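Reviewer 2 asked us to include a model.

Predict the structure of this chain.
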Amino acid sequence: MIPPPRATRAEFDRADETPRASEREYGTGIYRRRIVVRLDGGHASGELEDDFHHFRVAIEHDGEVVTGVDGSGVRSPWTMCLTAGDPLQAVTGRTLAVGPLALGGLDAKQNCTHMFDLASLVVTHAARGVEGDRQYDMAVDDPDPDTADRHARLWRDGALLLDWHLRDREVLSPDEWREAPLWSGFIPWADAHLDAEVAEAAVALRRACDISRGRLGDLDEMETAEPLLEMMSGICHAFQPANAPLAIRRKGSGRDFTDHPDLLLADFDARN
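Predicted model (structure tokens):
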């Protein structure tokens, strides 16, 4: 399916245009994520969409610091995710900076992980001061059933930037990424070892590799997030112990974009 030109796209219903995530057998699909950030003077905004999430963040700035922030959910796995704009207010007052530690020092686990990641990219885009859009596209294949190997790629503005071959939590190739500690201190490692722009992209792809494993199960079998607290307690806003019992599952929200990559954020302009 080829979407219409960006300037003429209206908002569309994901449930009508994409299959339910649970309809595709695990091991046969591709997890996809798209992030678009936009700078227009003192206003910067961005959206993130993948199989499970669709969030929006907008900030106002004076060229030096963030003067206002708004975070909202368009599509989320749990109802509590939609309240994550409240803890995101801690971004107000932050100095504009580039690199994966642009929001360093803030408590990411009190926030929605994905909204917080997006906020970091919106802030760094504003810090660079280059008006217009930047787009990240990520694809992570389901694991090979025999070797558990995965292939993860990231394109920035249409150009392939990162291409990782993974086994479990290790990068097999390219060689220069073999020592990258993907699941143990990766953000400070990336900040210390990589160019700021490559580091931002690498952190985004690492997150995609992690979230892609969500395709393994069907969360629609649950009513709330509370049963997952034993292994996920405190990892994000929705999984804070006080919030998880109130986080009602938004059944049917998970969609499969394996065959529909161009539909991710296809209606971005309708909201921005």
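The mean pLDDT is 94. Strands lie at 30-40, 43-50, 54-61, 66-75, 132-141, 149-156, 159-167, 170-173. We have added this to the supplementary material.
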